[in-house]
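Local shape tokens

___
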Amino acid sequence: MQYDYSKNKDEHPEPINADVKGLIPEWLQGTLIRNGPGLFSLGETRYNHWFDGMALLHSFTIKKGEVTYRSKYLQGDTYNSNMQANRIVVSEMGTMAYPDPCKNIFSKVITFLSHTIPDFTDNCANNIIKYGNDYHATSETNYIRKIDPMTLETQEKVDYLKYLPVNIVASHTHYDKEGNSYSMGTCIAEKGKTKYTLFKVPGGSGSDGSPPLKSAEVVCTVPCRSLLTPSYYHSFGMTDNYFVFIEQPLKLDVLKMATAYLRGVNWASCMKFHAEDSTLIHLIDRKTKKEVGIKFYTGAMAVYHQVNAFEDDGHVVFDVICYDDNSLYEMFYLDKLKEQMGADTMYCKPKCKRFVLPLSDMGETGEDLVKLKYTTASAVKEKEGKVLCQGEGLCDGVELPRINYNFNGKKYRYSYMCCVDISPVATKIVKFDAETKQKIEWTGGDCFSSEPVFIPRPDAVDEDDGVVLTCIINAKPVQGGFLLVLDGKSFKEVARACIDVDFHMDMHGYFIPDNKVAFSNFHGSNCFFLGHLS
């Protein structure tokens, strides 16, 4: 069973009525928007990496037990330039665009200069985030694109740099009960300093028609341990009183990126995992807007997604999906994906680990400061205010974690993830119980599954009272795909909405509840997949 990652997909901008089998709960009404690459070749040029493909949005609108589907390419500047030239003319992280050999020398000089001081792509193919009342397609550059969440029409191009000193911004955003959004970006070599900037966009921003980012507030900054090699990160953690930021040894070499075009290599080659370095764990107090005094660290690891973080009896507990190296990004080069299909390949299987940060370092040197009885995670006190953290392995072979977002930042029990124990291509999804360490799996035979999204039942009491939505790709495209609806408790199929469309493999998304339905307990959506750097 194979999925062709390099196949160009058709868009379907007009709504298509799904054939619903089963019974969708009456309370479930709203729109699930998903985002991911869908176009990989133009004319005689093609992208090298799956993450580089042109962003294709698709949505499932659920109303009164019925489902309508539509999809549309994000028509940003990158898309329009590429389509007009019928070739790739804007570089992505894993694909460097070179001028048409038929172009004159002036055009080639302009292309060279644009890559020495790059103006990054607005091909936002990774996630959907909300700022104020606006929805945006995003990747991890300084550009995002506002979209119409109902029609999927592309709207204004938004440049973070007009409002905040951030050159790179993480794909995942957090939301609080008041509707405020929290994001994190990197400011590179400004006034001789490189720093990580955590910022807040107030809920309701942009209601007067102005860009929501105009109201953005810097919450705090964290200095980078290296001026010209900042850490790459895809997400961060948030509790009621703290932010958790992992400064991992997966680093971007800024000088190498500036000379990549001249050297004939892509920007991704300038990202290196330094196995000899430690991973720094920054704990930021949301009230003081400063780091706590304890210097937490652990061994080298690569983290893309955080599951959840919470506070418990003088500790901050956070769960992440981690890897031993950065081989995952390398695996998604399209040529390598073709080689791996049907072959026994070396796969760096991800691990879901729990780390615990004690809020007090009172104790003797060499003492484990973790006092929680339900975890084997440790935090050993060292000299000079340092604490060495070792994580507890919760489970292996899982990715793209989602939770009941009402429990974000709070002690939780359940997460919903893609099962990737054999390869990074998910063929089943899993409900994981962090308390009992038990798994419940769903598999549909010859199909591929996307990130599962949990939607809580209105006024639910139990954490797992709701449904899980996931987009299923049929291994036989002629049969079309379907939106799967699972019961959150039993993890059994409730319904499926079949659509005669060859779905594309997406990354992350956002569920927008129908305001006419009393979603009193719904406070947002925790979004994310692998680090899309382009």
